[in-house]
Write a structure and sequence with these properties.
Elements lengths: L1 E4 L5 E4 L12 H5 L5 E3 L5 E3 L9 H5 L6 E3 L4 E3 L5 H5 L5 H5 L10 H15 L1
Antiparallel strand pairs: 1-2, 3-4, 5-6
């Protein structure tokens, strides 16, 4: 969430979803010298905190600048796509609880179908 003023000087809020994109080829994973980042079969990109040394290379390599360093624990942290929920056939919490239905979760083909249906509504 970011606050700003618009062209007329009126206060305005911008709401932005800022979390891991769980990339196909995660740059954060490639940059981790400890091998602490892996990609699950479900597509979730996760950090093994037992291996993480908090060097911050994952953040530096991430094109979205997503991973954060927890300075108290000296560990990198980011969204893990609720991989534990997915592995039990559940939807990630963000998609389940989004009251605006702005976040969807499913297979690539299901998401393409959903996008096509939405495009038909506005065409």
């Amino acid at each position: 969430m970011k606050e700003r003023t618009d062209m007329s000087g009126k206060f305005h809020w911008d709401f932005i979803k800022f979390q891991c994109m769980h990339c196909e080829n995660p740059a954060c994973m490639l940059g981790c010298p400890e091998g602490a980042i892996s990609k699950k079969e479900s597509g979730a990109v996760v950090i093994d905190e037992n291996k993480c040394v908090g060097c911050g290379y994952c953040r530096t390599n991430c094109p979205f600048n997503v991973p954060r360093i927890d300075t108290e624990r000296n560990k990198s942290t980011k969204c893990d796509l609720c991989f534990d929920r997915i592995e039990h056939g559940m939807v990630p919490s963000c998609a389940k609880t989004c009251t605006a239905e702005a976040i969807s979760f499913g297979t690539k083909s299901a998401m393409i179908k959903l996008a096509e249906e939405r495009l038909k509504e506005i065409a």
